[in-house]
Amino acid sequence: MRLTFDSSLEAIYILEAVWEKKAVVDFLIRDINKKAEEEMQMDCEHLLGKHICRLFPINIENGFFEQYKEAHLSNKKITQEYTVPKDYPGAGDYYQQIVPYSKGVIIYNRNNSELKNTRNELDKSQKVAEDLDVHLQSVMMSQTVYILKTDMEGNFTYLNDYFLKKFGFTSDILGTNSMDTVFVEDCDACMEVVRKCFEQPEKAHSVVLRKYTVDGKLKSGKWEFKALLGPNQELEEILCLGFDITEQVNAFDKANELLAITRDQNTRLRSFAYIVSHNIRSHSSNISGITNLLHSSLTEEDREMFLGMLGTSTDLLDQTINHLNEILTIQQTTDQLTEMMDLRVEVEKTLSIFAQDIGMLDAQIINDIPENTRVRVVPAYLESILLNLLSNAIKYRDPNRPLKIHLFSSIFEQGIRLSITDNGLGIDLSRHSEHVFGMYKTFHGNSDARGFGLFLTKSQVEAMGGTIELDSEIGKGSTFKVTFYE
Amino acid sequence: MSEWKNVIIVEDDPIAALLTKKTLENDSAFGDYQHYPNGKAALDGVRTFLAVTGEIPDLILLDLNMPVMNGWQFLDTIGQDAALSQIPVVILTSSIDPRDISRSQKYPSVLGYLSKPINTKEVRRLLG
């Protein structure tokens, strides 16, 4: 009996009521088992025969004494759970039964701490699992991340809604090959990152890929590929997570484009400054040289000649400054009012100005520009461009064959290109390509060539946001291509 | 007696060319001169001079910005000719572009780079 009593997993206290003046005032500890000794962390001999409330006044403070008394007096069992705070002997969570008997009460205490801890851990794990599920759900439903899975052949096995929505696909794409959606120039990079997944399945591998949307547009994405392993550690699928970086890529391209434009403008500005300096100095140095000579002893004839040259140099200096003003005006007024003009009509107007030359030279002019070919231009600039290009074609004709000028236009996505082809002298582009549109550059040694026309033309075309190019071959002729953008 | 008897002036601007001629005439150190309006004409002239006299000119005053053949193309061409590459050249230009100045220093026959209008004292200094 004693053995059973001591081997119980519950701490058992047998308490006998102490009566004074018809009232229970304490309980004597009649017996306790081994488990109770452990719980109290005291030997049996120190406890037996002692008044429990006198020994442990806490029994009164925390209301236990009242409960023992109640159980004993009412002869009813009380069941409860309680916790002994950390810093007290026997700290922990307890399940307690107070069972009355004729002389007092028997208390059964079971330490529930471990059970409770286990239950708490279980609750926590369940909460974590629930949270994880919510997180996973929210990731899969993500409106910022593309999530795809493919099998080892590259066929789609999973696509999240965000990817489908952004690329305009439906779930019909499941089972089709993922490489079909990769931009052709990025296929090698895609294959390379898949290869890395095979080689190092434990790591995620990054790659930037452009993919086609359902309507053929390209979107740039930063992707992470990771191999997913099956139960036997064999490669089963590839998980692909991606962010849309199309806007960043576009912004980066735009910034680079602006940088190139700025660099080009800087170079042009510096060159322009030296050209301006050169052009003004070429006349001012003449004026200075003539003035020096006028101070030396000269014949009357020479003096007259130098005075005439002084006048000429002054006029040329004035003309140069006017040219510079003209260029500066064009470069500063890029917001000039533009209008839609009929290119064919404008070409016909310009040709009529050269009607006399064309007639005298028996030149053949073919205007293949379709009617209603409309371009957005600054009207005065278009007029000046056509005048310059056509007068050049006439001026630099080949004297050994009749002049032929062919004008035609082609429409492309961003605008309209005007081509003017002649069979004139041509320019050796292998020697002059960098200087054709430069200021004061002349190529044929003509005494009336001033090297200003093509510089002016290029400035006017560019002020309207267009471009001008030249194809030319000595002895065959030239083609100027002027592109007007929408 | 002129120290530099045969001077070649390569200059497309007729006024600048005339000023150079008149300034040289006023300095006894310089003798005859020939004027050509661009590098191509000067090249033909110098070759003819060599063929007729068996000598090379004493000095070339060379402008840079010219039509048909500019100063650089002229320097490249004479640099490939054993005899013509021996002619001393002084660049006489309106350009003050530092890229032009540093480029001119790469040609062994170029003695110096002068700004117009010509100053014969400076030319003599360069010729030593």
Molecular structure report:
The complex is a heterodimer of chains A (486) and B (128). Chain A is built from 15 helices and 17 strands. Chain A is an alpha+beta fold and 486 residues long. In chain A, the strands form four sheets. Chain A has a five-stranded antiparallel sheet with strand order 2-1-5-4-3, with helices on both faces. In chain A, a hairpin with a 3-residue loop joins strand 16 (467-473) and strand 17 (477-485). Chain B is of the alpha/beta class. Chain B contains five helices and five strands. Chain B is globular, with a radius of gyration of 13 Å. Chain A binds chain B through residues 274, 277-279, 281-282, 285-286, 288-290, 292-293, 296, 302, 309, 312-313, 431, 440-446, 449, 451, and chain B through 13, 15-16, 18-19, 22-23, 26, 37-38, 65, 67-68, 73, 93-97, 115-118.
Key features of this structure:
heterodimer; A: 486 residues; alpha+beta; five-stranded antiparallel sheet; 15 helices; 44% helix; B: 128 residues; alpha/beta; five-stranded parallel sheet; 5 helices; 5 strands
The count of DSSP E runs of length 2 or more, i.e. the number of strands of chain B, is 5
- The number of helical elements of chain B comes to 5
Query: Which structural category fits the helices and strands of chain A?
Result: alpha+beta
Question: What spatial order of strands do you see in the largest sheet of chain A?
Answer: 2-1-5-4-3
Distance between the termini of chain A: 107 Å
- Work out the radius of gyration of chain B: 13 Å
* Largest Cβ-defined interface: A-B, 28 and 23 residues
How many individual β-strands of chain A? 17
Mean pLDDT of chain A: 86
Put simply, the count of helices of chain A is 15
Helix/strand order of chain B = EHEHEHEHEH
Global Rg of chain A: 50 Å
- Characterize the overall form of chain B: globular
Principal-axis shape of chain A: elongated
Largest beta-sheet characterization of chain A: 5 strands, antiparallel
Oligomer: heterodimer
Flag low-confidence runs of chain A. Answer: none
Structural class by SSE content of chain B: alpha/beta
Strand order, sheet with most strands of chain B: 2-1-3-4-5
Largest sheet of chain B: 5 strands, parallel
| Unreliable residue runs of chain B | none
